[in-house]
Amino acid sequence: ETGVTQSPTHLIKTRGQQVTLRCSSQSGHNTVSWYQQALGQGPQFIFQYYREEENGRGNFPPRFSGLQFPNYSSELNVNALELDDSALYLCASSSGLAGVKETQYFGPGTRLLVL
Amino acid sequence: KQEVTQIPAALSVPEGENLVLNCSFTDSAIYNLQWFRQDPGKGLTSLLLIQSSQREQTSGRLNASLDKSSGRSTLYIAASQPGDSATYLCAVASGSRLTFGEGTQLTVNP
Q1: Which pLDDT tens digit goes with each residue over A64-99?
Q2: What does DSSP say about strands B10-14 and B104-109: parallel, antiparallel, or unpaired?
Q3: How far is B110 from chain A (nearest CA, A)?
Q4: CA pair distance A86, A12, nearest whole angstrom
Q5: Which of B96, B102, B104 to probe the A interface (max A CBs under 10 A)?
Q6: Which residues pair with A89 in a beta bridge?
Q7: Any idea what DSSP says for residue A103?
Q8: Which of A93, A100, A102, A113 to probe by mutation at the B interface, max B CB count within 10 Å?
């Protein structure tokens, strides 16, 4: 069984640029969630996708957007990058119904540095 | 708004010691509580999940308890080993999100 994978592993961008992060969910999982983890802090919920529809969003501005594809993989897009967007971006997948009633399985993350 | 607090923020113990990590949360309307391990610069590894109707879960040397009415959970690690050194995060599940604490950074010294 393949676990959750994310690409790229590391990324360096400059302020104002745009970035796309990718996540492949674990086999059989139909729900994908994205989290932002700043250094020394716990992860913060960005949004969740269930069967290609957004199902809940955290306190992030609209320049954070996402997609889920028919194979349940997902993208996180961030426009107009700011220095404070520098963080580890984590993707989690789960099976069953929408929400977080099932165990969430996390990928290794993408480390984004904005200069 | 759900808030999760973990105490202590950091803990250093000698190898072989039994230890307890604490987690508290403000809203008891949760589906479950999950404990994770995070190694430096890495993703999260799920350790234990306790459903809201359960009181505890065990896996090997790990035991997690949940008292939903008081908004508390503990993670007990028996006979700690240097390989247990990591940051331990608790997260409560409600709606479509996990709400995390800031973690306890554990160092087990040989």
Answers
A1: 999 999 988 999 999 999 999 999 999 999 987 767
A2: parallel
A3: 25
A4: 9
A5: B96
A6: A36, A110
A7: P
A8: A100
